[in-house]
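Archive maintenance. Older records in this collection stored only the sequence; we are now back-filling the structure field for every entry so that each record is complete. The fields below show one back-filled record exactly as it appears after the update. Entries are processed alphabetically, and P pilus assembly protein, chaperone PapD is next in the queue.

ARCHIVE ENTRY
Title: P pilus assembly protein, chaperone PapD
Organism field: Pseudomonas extremaustralis
Length field: 231
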Amino acid sequence: MTTQLLNIAALTLLLSLNAQADGMVPDTSVVIVYEQEGEASVSVTNTDNQLALLHVTLEDIPEDTEPLLVVTPPLSRVEPGKSQLVRFIFQDQQPLKSQRLKRVVFEGMPKGRPATEAGHARVGVTVRQNLPVIIHPKGLATNRTPWTGLTWHLQNNELQVHNDTPYVVRLAQELRLLPGDGRAMLPRTYVLPGERLRVPASGAGASTVRLQPATLYGFAVAAYDAPITLR
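Back-filled structure field:
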C-alpha cells in the first residue's frame, strides 16, 4: 500500500473514531486556582447525545507530588447537552511562594450505549481532556510574559536554562541557537519556578536562543530571542 493510501486510511479511521467519541468539554484550556480565593470552578459540558458519567482526576507532575488540591465532585452524571460545575479547592496550610503546576483529566464514560448489531463491529472511544492546573500564590502579580525572566547559558555544547522567577513558564521544547543553525531540545514544555535544566546543544559561538513561548492559557505567541551567557 502506498504512503498516500496509508495516510487516507489513517485519516478515515481517525474520523470514524471521532464520530463515535463521547466528549466532555471544559470551558477553559487551563484551570487557574488563586490562593487568595481558595478555590476555582470549571464548567464541563457533555457534548454527546446521551447520558454520560464525568470522571475528574487530579494528576501530579513528576517534579511536584505534594497534594495541594481537592476536586469535587470527582464523579457525576451529566445529561446530553448539559453542564456540570467542577470545583478545585486549595487545601495547603502553608502560604505558597511560587506558582505550582498540576494537571486534571476530564473523562466522559457513556452509559446506555446501544448493543452492537450482529455482524457489525463497533469501536467505543472516550475522550480525555487533560489540562494544566496553575495554583497562583496570594500577592503575586500577574505576569503575561514570564519567559522573559529565564536566563540562558552555553558551555561545552550544553545549554542551561534557569528560572529564578516565581512563575511557571510554558514554551515549546525545540530551541534554536543563533547566529547559525544550532539546536537544542527541552525535556518538556514547562520550566518550573526555581528550576535549572541542562540539555545538549549544537551551535558553538551562539549568542541568542530563540524560543517559542506560550501564554498561561497555552496559546503560542511570537518567538522570543533571549541572550545567551557564555561560560
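Update note: The helical segments are 3-19. The first strand starts at residue 21 and ends at 22.
Entry marked complete.
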